[in-house]
Amino acid sequence: MTDADHDTPESTLAGVRDGLVEAMLPHVMFEGWSRRSLDAAVHDMGLDKSMALRAFPGGMAQAAEHYCDWLDRRMLEALADVDLDSMNIRQRIATVVRTRIGLVAPYRESVRRLISFLSLPINALASGRCTYRAVDSMWFAAGDTSTDWNFYTKRALLAGVYSATLLCWLADDSEDFEETWAFLDRRIEDALKLPRWPRRAADLMGTRFYGNPLAAFMPGSRRRGGRSFGMSRPPRGDVRRGA
User: Fold this and answer.
1) Of 76, 53, 55, nearest in space to 66 by CA
2) How would you classify residue 172: left for phi > 0, otherwise alpha for psi between -120 and 50, otherwise beta?
3) Coil vs helix vs strand at 175
């Protein structure tokens, strides 16, 4: 190993990491999300054996997080030329989720093995970060720019939709994954119904409800403007005293 090998620029190392997680996928279906799969990817790329440790000093959990980041970026690139502005919210979310899953469709068994790895208790933090970044990237692609409490509400809803759809896809044997996409449509419909319950509860309790967190995406919303959406938020100064 030369001195130059130790001084690999971070930008170059990032590219190596991208190449490694992609090269791992054909091996993961047989070896699992393991060091053996990473070593095989290093060999396939013709790199020095030490590159596995230099690229991912944090081990396989770091490699898993980088894979998720790599997939986030690939998804955004694939959606860049898609006319999401002409779609309603159901179509946007369905398109984003389908695009993300479609990118790794050839490696379904590898995705299954990765999920098994991230499901281990020791990887709970890495799994949570991957899920959050995934749904954040999906909402970004869908045009969300909210910065208030709705930012978190929408990501929590989409995390449930995406996670359930991913598990359905892993078990789907239908042609062109038709059952998965039908399942996705039902979950999106269910998610859009959930924000109605706080209003009903608020009516029963006689309190103020500040609106559906997905309202800015609904047809006819006066707050829509291209792909910039300001979500409803509590009005300032509306604090009840003496209640």
Assistant:
1) 55
2) beta
3) helix
The Cβ-side half-sphere exposure at 12, using a 13 Å CA radius, reads 8
Tokens of 95: 């398109």
Q: Extract the tokens encoding 135.
A: 């749904």
DSSP 95-137: HHHHHHHHHTGGGHHHHHHHHHHHTSGGGHHHHHHHHHHHHHH
CATH number at residue 108: 1.10.357.10
> Does a structural domain hold residue 225?
no
Mapping DSSP to helix (H, G, I), strand (E, B) and coil, where does residue 149 land?
A: coil
Q: Would you say residue 73 lies in a domain?
A: yes
| Structural domain includes residue 29 | no
- Chain centroid, CA 185 distance in Å: 17
Q: What is the pLDDT along the chain (243 residues), one digit of tens a residue?
A: 444 444 556 668 999 999 999 999 999 999 999 999 999 999 999 999 999 999 999 999 999 999 999 999 999 999 999 999 999 989 999 999 999 999 999 999 999 999 999 999 999 999 999 999 999 999 999 998 888 888 988 999 999 999 999 999 999 999 999 999 999 999 999 888 875 545 554 454 454 444 554 544 444 444 434 343 333 334 334 433 343
| Separation of alpha carbons 195 and 179, rounded Å | 26
Q: Number of folded domains in the chain?
A: 1
Kindly state the tokens that stand for 220: 């006819």
Residue type, 37: S
Q: Which domain holds residue 100?
A: 60-217
- Within a domain: residue 66? yes
The phi and psi torsions of 7 (rounded to 5 degrees) equal: -105, 35
